[in-house]
Amino acid sequence: MTLFLRHSSYFILSSLLLASCNQKKEVEAKKNEQTVIEMNDSSSISKTAEDAPRHQTTKTRLVILGTIQDAGSPQITCKKSCCEGLFEDPDQRRKVVSLGLIDALNNTTYLFEATPDIGSQVKKLTQLETNSESEMVDGIFLTHAHMGHYTGLMYLGKEAMDAKNTPVYAMPRMKSFLENNGPWSQLLVRENIHINALRSDSSVQLSNGLKVTPFLVPHRDEFSETVGYKIEGPNKSALFIPDIDKWEKWSKDIVTEIRKVDYAFLDATFFDAKELNNRDISQIPHPFIIESLEKFGDLNKIDKQKVIFIHFNHTNPVIDRTSKAYKLTTLKGFRIAQINEQFEL
Ligand SMILES: [Zn+2]
Ligand SMILES: [Zn+2]
Ligand SMILES: [Zn+2]
Fold it and tell me: The whole model's pTM is what?
């Protein structure tokens, strides 16, 4: 401190501000501390972030920043019990589906998806990365052009933070959609974002031992193709497939792909047909949880624990941890994504 006093008052003020900012960040980070769940620790695997003992980590890891389908919860105009009371008193745990990636080697952060909840998600992710002062992520990976997965980019524009060349990773059709349609094209004209073109099955090396690989999946591709991601860290790897039509329509075998990774965050939009007034589930282009439970039934106990269901429609009963659906899914050895859970890579 004596050293600081010899310098100009501006320097002292900025140092103090920085120190208080650092302190604030540390306090906030402590508040937000969540549990990292080790896949090889079977004693903690079935626990949620809230149940398990808490500790801090500085390792490269993923964090769940949102678990809900594109339109959020409560969903506009919903009068059913799923959204009762939530318009007046929102549940802060219900954010649109997103994963955060913290690269401990470079003290950088990446978002998977730019959701309508991007503001609080960027805040959470940058708070967890305690070694950097940056308030903004270092890159955003997009899966496809459906409203929950990219429209958060609007908050990078002139009316909001007016970002400076935030790297956005996108597949060719997604890139061209953003380049050729307003208001997204304005983000490029103003250099709020810079698009890094992805190629299916071609990896982006983020740092030594950390890479991200997009792969095509079948989905309603009106404006863009749809990808899932494989995220490979120094020790562990994850699959992220928030939206896909039925598993059977994919060229790869999902069961084999689950076995190859340590975590699999998978589309679980609907639990069963009751949510859709008992419509024929074979005609709804998402794998229902009850279909996935059957398909993944032959996995061994360890492999079942890798499956973390995510992307829940507002009607999905598994959002409620006291529901029969939640209990059935977890009793069978699978997991329901919980916001703020962290996973070492
Ligand atoms: Zn979606
Ligand atoms: Zn609802
Ligand atoms: Zn979609």
Answer: 0.86
> Which ligand ends up closest to the CA of 71?
1
149 alpha carbon, closest ligand: 1
For residue 83, report the distance from its CA to the centre of ligand 3, in Å. 21
Domain 57-344: CATH architecture, name and number where available: 4-Layer Sandwich (3.60)
Q: Look at residue 277 in the predicted model and tell me its pLDDT.
A: 84
- Calculate how far, in angstroms, residue 313's C-alpha sits from the geometric centre of ligand 2: 8
The bound ligand whose nearest atom lies closest to the alpha carbon of 242 is: 1
Domain boundaries, the chain: 57-344
Ligand nearest to the CA of 285: 3
pLDDT at 55 over 70: no
Reply yes or no on whether the pLDDT at 223 is more than 90. yes
Q: Which residues contact 300 (CB under 8 A, 6 or more apart)?
A: none
Checking if the pLDDT of 63 tops 60, the result is: yes
